[in-house]
Write a structure and sequence with these properties.
- The protein is an alpha+beta fold and about 325 residues long.
- Helix content is about 30%, strand content about 25%.
- The chain contains eleven helices and 13 strands.
- It has helices spanning about 10-25, 30-45, 60-65, 95-100, 145-155, 170-180, 190-200, 215-230, 240-250, 260-265, 315-320; strands spanning about 55-60, 75, 80-90, 105-110, 125-130, 160-165, 185-190, 210-215, 230-235, 270-275, 285-290, 290-300, 305-315.
- Strand 6, helix 6 (about 170-180) and strand 7 form a beta-alpha-beta unit.
- It starts with 8 loop residues before the first helix and ends in a 5-residue tail after the last helix.
- The relative contact order is 0.17.
């Protein structure tokens, strides 16, 4: 028998709830910048209360040029434990701004020095699967080979599978390959953290994520999938020859397959996500006279526990004790 250790994941859910409550007011307003600013401010405000010495490894800086939650920023109270932090205050700013599905707020932590630091390289080719296909796929293999491997692992036919892919021009060939195999496809405008997690969430109906998306989102997804029993593999993707040259000079290998251990080298990870708009993974924030409800996923790698947290918030009380306008 050992004494149970502190579960920081349960403290992180307050962080993502706060960001979701602040950002949810902007659903459908068409203002991605204002929504992201509200989420960043709320997330940073709550992170400051968590008893940890955190350093942001995956932050807002490279893509969004944000003044807060930038790479290298220190957050938390400064007390142990020392941790790396990955944040995405809004995964899916476009769906939120247009009132569409699957915008979520996410945060993950792991022991200091265990998270992959992608530097300035923000795109990655990814393959993510749930527990049944863990260890059965290879991102360097042809699409057809991976789809047949997943179908065998799940006891399905290839045409039973649903593949989720970001709807981008760069994926035309990938989409054609999947269609040739007769698998079903779900195209999404944004939100590949949620998409990766859906592969390990049986109720979602998603079997595999394929294609090029954000590198920060890949690290966040790895933290959650590590505890949920799924798998994600990645390869850094250079947008042009200049970025490829710069990356190689900095020591990055764009041909290397990044495994789960490369993306987060510890089982002692904590992850939380809260829905901002409705989706297959989480329900979005619902507001009503003076209150709101949130739906969250809380994952702890050390125990492999996955919790669903449905919370009711009294906004009048929150606004009395918080500088964040909910």
């Amino acid at each position: 028998m050992t004494t149970p250790t502190r579960n920081l994941a349960l403290e992180l859910v307050r962080v993502t709830e706060s960001a979701a409550l602040a950002a949810g007011r902007f659903m459908g307003r068409g203002d991605k910048v204002a929504a992201d600013q509200a989420a960043v401010e709320a997330m940073r405000f709550m992170l400051a209360s968590v008893e940890m010495d955190g350093e942001v490894v995956i932050g807002e800086g490279e893509k969004d040029q944000a003044p807060m939650l930038y790479n290298g920023e220190r957050v938390g109270t400064g007390a142990p434990p020392q941790v790396d932090i990955a944040v995405d205050p809004i995964d899916g700013t476009r769906p939120l701004a247009t009132g569409n599905l699957n915008a979520i707020s996410t945060v993950a932590i792991a022991p200091r020095g265990t998270m992959f630091d992608p530097g300035p390289f923000v795109y990655m080719n990814k393959l993510a699967v749930g527990p049944a296909a863990q260890g059965k796929v290879d991102i360097t293999a042809p699409v057809e080979a991976n789809l047949h491997a997943i179908a065998r692992a799940k006891g399905d036919r290839v045409d039973d599978l649903t593949v989720i892919i970001l709807d981008r021009h760069r994926h035309e060939r990938l989409i054609a390959d999947v269609r040739r195999c007769k698998a079903r496809i779900r195209l999404i405008p944004d939100g590949d953290v949620a998409a990766a997690l859906m592969t390990a969430w049986p109720q979602s109906g998603i079997d595999v994520l394929l294609g090029i998306g954000g590198t920060p989102e890949g690290v966040l997804a790895a933290c959650a999938l590590r505890a949920m029993g799924g798998e994600i593999q990645g390869q850094l993707f250079a947008r042009d020859e200049e970025e490829l040259r710069r990356g190689r000079e900095m020591g990055y290998d764009f041909d290397r397959t990044l495994t789960m251990d490369d993306l987060v080298a510890s089982d002692n990870v904590c992850f939380a996500a809260t829905g901002i708009t409705d989706g297959e993974l989480l329900r979005g924030v619902k507001y009503s006279g003076g209150g709101a409800t949130t739906d969250s996923l809380v994952v702890r790698g050390l125990s492999g526990t996955v919790r669903q947290v449905r919370a009711t918030h009294r906004l009048e009380k929150l606004n009395r004790i918080s500088s964040i306008p909910y």
